[in-house]
């Protein structure tokens, strides 16, 4: 099994320019991920390239999350806070469950793909909230948000039934964003940490599942 390891440093400027085009060609050329790829016949080469591109895309986002977490952890003790459950109970952050078909036991490709795509759409409002939460890593926050939009579009192209992908209600998202921004400074810091942690876990689970597709 191919190990989960980053393929390169996070580059927010390159992300921003490439993702404005929202084109697969905007991402770095794919690299061989393991022995299995050496055995793929030429007719399947394009499918392999698409899979590798999504894999690399997710890793760029994870690199960005790491940069954001580093800033918030260096600024305060939010990453070690014992009261973070208070904020977590007020958030409806997407999580993977057995019924979503993304785990090895009971894996279902289409059900899992719908869950990943829907979950990323639900995370968008939280990524919007993060845009004004960083100082030195402001570009990274914008790049994570933009690259997530590009990832959603890539996954939508893989889905067999686009109508089954649930889209969050704009009014509900606007109301949630207002509530998050109205929190006191300490609670906003904890909320930021929880969003980044949950998004990282969701992407890591998604990455493992997508490698089975």
Automatic annotation (TrEMBL):
<dbReference type="GO" id="GO:0046427">
    <property type="term" value="P:positive regulation of receptor signaling pathway via JAK-STAT"/>
</dbReference>
<keyword id="KW-0202">Cytokine</keyword>
<dbReference type="GO" id="GO:0010575">
    <property type="term" value="P:positive regulation of vascular endothelial growth factor production"/>
</dbReference>
<dbReference type="GO" id="GO:0043065">
    <property type="term" value="P:positive regulation of apoptotic process"/>
</dbReference>
<dbReference type="GO" id="GO:0071222">
    <property type="term" value="P:cellular response to lipopolysaccharide"/>
</dbReference>
<dbReference type="GO" id="GO:0005615">
    <property type="term" value="C:extracellular space"/>
</dbReference>
<dbReference type="GO" id="GO:0032733">
    <property type="term" value="P:positive regulation of interleukin-10 production"/>
</dbReference>
<dbReference type="GO" id="GO:0010573">
    <property type="term" value="P:vascular endothelial growth factor production"/>
</dbReference>
<dbReference type="GO" id="GO:0002384">
    <property type="term" value="P:hepatic immune response"/>
</dbReference>
<dbReference type="GO" id="GO:0008083">
    <property type="term" value="F:growth factor activity"/>
</dbReference>
<dbReference type="GO" id="GO:0043410">
    <property type="term" value="P:positive regulation of MAPK cascade"/>
</dbReference>
<dbReference type="GO" id="GO:0032760">
    <property type="term" value="P:positive regulation of tumor necrosis factor production"/>
</dbReference>
<dbReference type="GO" id="GO:0042102">
    <property type="term" value="P:positive regulation of T cell proliferation"/>
</dbReference>
<keyword id="KW-0732">Signal</keyword>
<dbReference type="GO" id="GO:0002675">
    <property type="term" value="P:positive regulation of acute inflammatory response"/>
</dbReference>
<dbReference type="InterPro" id="IPR030474">
    <property type="entry name" value="IL-6/GCSF/MGF"/>
</dbReference>
<dbReference type="GO" id="GO:0060252">
    <property type="term" value="P:positive regulation of glial cell proliferation"/>
</dbReference>
<dbReference type="GO" id="GO:0032757">
    <property type="term" value="P:positive regulation of interleukin-8 production"/>
</dbReference>
<dbReference type="GO" id="GO:2000635">
    <property type="term" value="P:negative regulation of primary miRNA processing"/>
</dbReference>
<dbReference type="GO" id="GO:0042593">
    <property type="term" value="P:glucose homeostasis"/>
</dbReference>
<keyword id="KW-0964">Secreted</keyword>
<dbReference type="GO" id="GO:0001781">
    <property type="term" value="P:neutrophil apoptotic process"/>
</dbReference>
<feature type="disulfide bond">
    <location>
        <begin position="102"/>
        <end position="112"/>
    </location>
</feature>
<dbReference type="GO" id="GO:0032731">
    <property type="term" value="P:positive regulation of interleukin-1 beta production"/>
</dbReference>
<dbReference type="GO" id="GO:0051607">
    <property type="term" value="P:defense response to virus"/>
</dbReference>
<keyword id="KW-0339">Growth factor</keyword>
<dbReference type="GO" id="GO:0005138">
    <property type="term" value="F:interleukin-6 receptor binding"/>
</dbReference>
<dbReference type="GO" id="GO:0005896">
    <property type="term" value="C:interleukin-6 receptor complex"/>
</dbReference>
<dbReference type="GO" id="GO:1900017">
    <property type="term" value="P:positive regulation of cytokine production involved in inflammatory response"/>
</dbReference>
<dbReference type="GO" id="GO:0032722">
    <property type="term" value="P:positive regulation of chemokine production"/>
</dbReference>
<dbReference type="GO" id="GO:0010718">
    <property type="term" value="P:positive regulation of epithelial to mesenchymal transition"/>
</dbReference>
<dbReference type="GO" id="GO:0045727">
    <property type="term" value="P:positive regulation of translation"/>
</dbReference>
<feature type="signal peptide">
    <location>
        <begin position="1"/>
        <end position="28"/>
    </location>
</feature>
<dbReference type="GO" id="GO:1902512">
    <property type="term" value="P:positive regulation of apoptotic DNA fragmentation"/>
</dbReference>
<dbReference type="GO" id="GO:0042802">
    <property type="term" value="F:identical protein binding"/>
</dbReference>
<dbReference type="GO" id="GO:0050871">
    <property type="term" value="P:positive regulation of B cell activation"/>
</dbReference>
<dbReference type="GO" id="GO:0070301">
    <property type="term" value="P:cellular response to hydrogen peroxide"/>
</dbReference>
<comment type="function">
    <text>Cytokine with a wide variety of biological functions in immunity, tissue regeneration, and metabolism. Binds to IL6R, then the complex associates to the signaling subunit IL6ST/gp130 to trigger the intracellular IL6-signaling pathway. The interaction with the membrane-bound IL6R and IL6ST stimulates 'classic signaling', whereas the binding of IL6 and soluble IL6R to IL6ST stimulates 'trans-signaling'. Alternatively, 'cluster signaling' occurs when membrane-bound IL6:IL6R complexes on transmitter cells activate IL6ST receptors on neighboring receiver cells.</text>
</comment>
<keyword id="KW-1015">Disulfide bond</keyword>
<dbReference type="GO" id="GO:0007259">
    <property type="term" value="P:cell surface receptor signaling pathway via JAK-STAT"/>
</dbReference>
<dbReference type="GO" id="GO:0005125">
    <property type="term" value="F:cytokine activity"/>
</dbReference>
<dbReference type="GO" id="GO:0045944">
    <property type="term" value="P:positive regulation of transcription by RNA polymerase II"/>
</dbReference>
């Amino acid at each position: 099994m191919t190990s989960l390891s980053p393929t390169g440093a996070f580059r927010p400027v390159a992300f921003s320019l490439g993702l404005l085009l929202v084109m697969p060609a905007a991402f770095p050329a794919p690299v061989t991920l393991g022995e299995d790829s050496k055995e793929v016949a030429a007719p399947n080469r394009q499918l392999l390239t698409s899979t590798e591109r999504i894999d690399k895309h997710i890793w760029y986002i994870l690199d960005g999350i790491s940069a954001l977490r580093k800033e918030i952890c260096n600024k305060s003790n939010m990453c070690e806070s014992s009261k973070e459950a208070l904020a977590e109970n007020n958030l409806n952050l997407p999580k993977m469950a057995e019924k979503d078909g993304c785990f090895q036991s009971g894996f279902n490709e289409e059900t899992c793909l719908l869950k990943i795509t829907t979950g990323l759409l639900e995370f968008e409002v939280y990524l919007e909230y993060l845009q004004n939460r960083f100082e030195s890593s402001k570009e990274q926050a914008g790049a994570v948000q933009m690259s997530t939009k590009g990832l959603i579009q890539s996954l939508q192209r893989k889905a067999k039934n686009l109508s089954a992908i649930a889209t969050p209600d704009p009014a509900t998202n606007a109301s949630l964003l207002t509530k998050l921004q109205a929190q006191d400074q300490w609670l906003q810091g904890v909320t930021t940490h929880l969003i980044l942690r949950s998004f990282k876990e969701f992407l890591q689970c998604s990455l493992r599942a997508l490698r089975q597709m």
